[in-house]
Fold:
Amino acid sequence: MKYQTEQIDRLASEFLNQKNNTQSRQVTLVGGGGRMGRFFNTHLSQAGHKVRILGSQDWKQAKELLKRADLVLVCVPIEYTVDTIIKLSTYLSPTTALADITSIKTPIVKAMLEHHRGPVMGLHPMFGPGLESFAKQKIVACPGRQTEAFDWLLSLMGNYGGELIYATPEEHDRLMATVQAVRNFATFGFGAFLAADRVEVGRSLDFSSPAYRQQIEMVQRLFSQSAPMIVDIILASPESRAAIAQLGSVCSRLAQLVQQGERSALITEFESANSFFQQAISTQYFNN
Structure:
């Protein structure tokens, strides 16, 4: 499954020049009773679209809930997504647009393309369900097939203030290995260390700098989420697992230098990493 860069660029350009189409659509949210499903239900309904929910107990009504749907949006947890796509595909019209909102894209988009003849797109909202709108939030869009069928949905998210980023499923998963999986694992590891070492976290905050307080808040936010969801993100792809293994290798090497008191070697490692960041990311990017 290959995607042309020209297609990604075309979609981005077309979206920037597109006016919102306010025609009411029929939308079915599969797994729409979850928090992200409810988020999309609210905003699609507010925009004048007719939304129906297909939950885990509603498959006897699947034919009725899916027929004549302009869009079917799969909002189930990662581990159920491919099976759900296969199950619902027998009910879909070739004109129905099919999309998902999981945090892994390559196998999901592949499954949609294999089991559905109509329009396909992978979506990944880069935010949690606690927000009230798309405003200033990023949404990754991975084109699959007949992507013009999704123009109205992309416009809706953009008109609500969302920032659309176009990528191939492969690029998305490669970058998510760092952006999501490694980051969540590192935060998970820090929290697990605090628990294992029985650190007096509350008392430590009395001595904390703003940076430490932010780290503790990150740990709190992580552990306030669903454990299966976070673990599925960490295990989501071979790229994620390989990147986490590499992080473990680097940390183990640095920890050994610390244990051996290798000051000069640690300074060299620090300066090498700093040099990479100076070359890779400009100060202007952070200031913006």
